[in-house]
Amino acid sequence: MSKQGSRTLRGRRSELIEILPRLRRFALSLTGHPADADDLLQSTVERLLARGLPDEAELMPWSIRVCRNIRIDEIRASKVRRRAGEELAHGADRVVSGESDTLTELTLREVQGALSELPEDQRAVLELVAVEGHSYREAAAMLETPIGTVMSRLARARAALAERCRKPAALSIAKRKTSDD
Amino acid sequence: MTDVREDREDELLSAYLDGELPRAEAEELTRRLAREPALSERLEELRTMNRAAVAGFRAFDERPMPKRVLELLGENAAEGTAGNVVRFRQLPRLGEFFRLPVALAASIALVAGLWLGGLPARRGAPDDVAYASRIAESSALHAAFDRAASGEVIELGGDRHATPLLTFLSDGGGWCRQVRITGGPAPADALACRRHGQWQMELVTFGAATPAPGAGAYGQASAGGTPAMRAALDRLMGREPPLGRAEEADVIGREWQVPP
After folding, report:
1. Which residues of A touch B18 (CB under 8 A)?
2. Bigger pLDDT: B52 or B153?
3. Per residue in B167-208, pLDDT tens?
4. Of A128, A114, A109, A119, whose CA–CA distance to A163 is shortest?
5. How far is Cα of residue B40 from the mean position of the Cα atoms in its chain?
6. How far is CA B28 from CA A95, A155, B12, B143, in A?
7. Residue B159: which of B102, B95, B97 has the closest Cα?
8. pTM tops 0.90
9. B110 or B54: whose pLDDT is higher?
């Protein structure tokens, strides 16, 4: 990147700070693991600071693309660390079920566990559209993929979450815990 | 073949949720939803999972931003919560507060058309957590919404308490209540409305701006809370003012019958 680009970003550091939480959630959508997401966030910020922002680029879409490219590089280089036992879940205790036969009590941990099982591309588009509120067109541009692909990935992600969270396993675990109590 | 059809319908429903369907297709789907219960149940299931996913992602904000990243960005960032530079919300552990009941298809009572008719798809707002969930009737939180008077303190267990603040008739004709939950890592405000005889959570916000009223204090004046909650109240509240104590007691006594 040019020095001009670099200067541009230095002048926009406060904007970069503002988008950090969103960028971090996107990193999480790619990695599925909080610690890996933070590593990816750091790499992304380092690259943005080092290489700057093209004058014509908007900060958030550009940052998303940088983040995604770094992730792709990491996967290619097989440098992604896997942290056994650590998924998206982080501290939300399981809430015991048993209130209704017709309802599955779904805890945040279970949702996060289901999210972590989604394919990376589905999780990424779900994060951009459902969490960050981007349009399909915006998400498609950031992910450099056709709008139709965004649409189908979103549908598959939601359907997969519904399928996973409908499984009786979560309920049976909760009931086991109830009986343990 | 069936799978292909179901995949296509999921795509339609998913795009419908996101407000991405062309108008004509959205209208046609709305009509189908009104006459096809299985389709509307599927829509509700996808909507519920979508909101649960949003909550799942947003809970990540609870983790402190890595110091090494903040240091890369200079001294302002190192303060983290300074001013409006960046706000790292201290979300409570959601799982400790609420359950996210996912209604199985057969138990979903909502008719999607009633929910979606004319309403734009809700995007992920930055500061709130939306739940498309029914509040379990056997829960203490349900008791707070269903039976407690405003200002009355209901024990939720684990040193947590719920206090109704506000009761009003929504623009859509259903009763809604705002309840403040205290005693966790951060106060939370929950807004729920009655639909089809059940309390449905509309919104949960954290870090309420105003303190919860003490026991017995009629809390109407202190309602409001975060900007997201105020916006939701503005959106939902009809022309009628919130109920006074006597009116509220009467409505609770009549088991939330809606006036003709």
Report:
1. 129-130, 136, 154
2. B153
3. 998 877 889 999 888 876 567 788 888 887 888 877 777 654
4. A114
5. 20
6. 40, 19, 11, 40
7. B97
8. no
9. B54
Interchain proximity A161–B53, CB inside 8 Å: yes
Asked whether B82 and B70 are in contact (CB, 8 A), the reply is no
Calculate the alpha carbon distances from B164 to A127, B161, B170, B231, B232 in Å: 33, 10, 16, 18, 16
Q: Which one of A99, A100, A111 has the shortest CB-CB distance to B53? A: A111
Sign of CA dihedral A162, A168, A173, A174: positive
Question: Does B234 have pLDDT greater than 60?
Answer: yes
Is residue B49 a contact partner of residue B102, using CB atoms and an 8 Å limit?
yes
> What's the 3-state SS for B108-142?
CCCCHHHHHCCCCCCCCCCCCECCCCECCCCCHHH
> For chain A (length 181 residues), average pLDDT per consecutive 10?
52 80 92 89 91 82 93 74 42 30 51 87 93 90 94 95 67 37 39
> Is any Cβ of chain A less than 8 angstroms from the Cβ of B68?
yes
Kindly state the DSSP code that residue A128 receives in the 8-state scheme.
I
Q: Would you tell me the crossing angle of helices A13-31 and B37-58 to the nearest 10 degrees? A: 120
A60 against B121, higher pLDDT: A60
C-alpha–C-alpha distance, residues B1 and B129, integer Å: 38
Are A103 and B134 in contact (CB < 8 Å)?
Answer: yes
Kindly report the number of other CB atoms within 10 A of residue B5's CB atom.
9
Measured between CB atoms, does A29 come within 8 Å of chain B?
Answer: yes
Summarised one tens digit per residue, pLDDT across range B78-116 is: 444 322 223 333 233 232 223 333 332 222 222 222 222
Q: Determine the residue of chain B that is closest to A162 in CA distance.
A: B49
Q: What is the DSSP letter of A112?
A: H
Which residues, 6+ apart, have CB-to-CB distance to A118 below 8 Å?
Answer: A32, A126, A157, A160, A161
Nearest by CB: B73 against A16, A133, A157:
A16
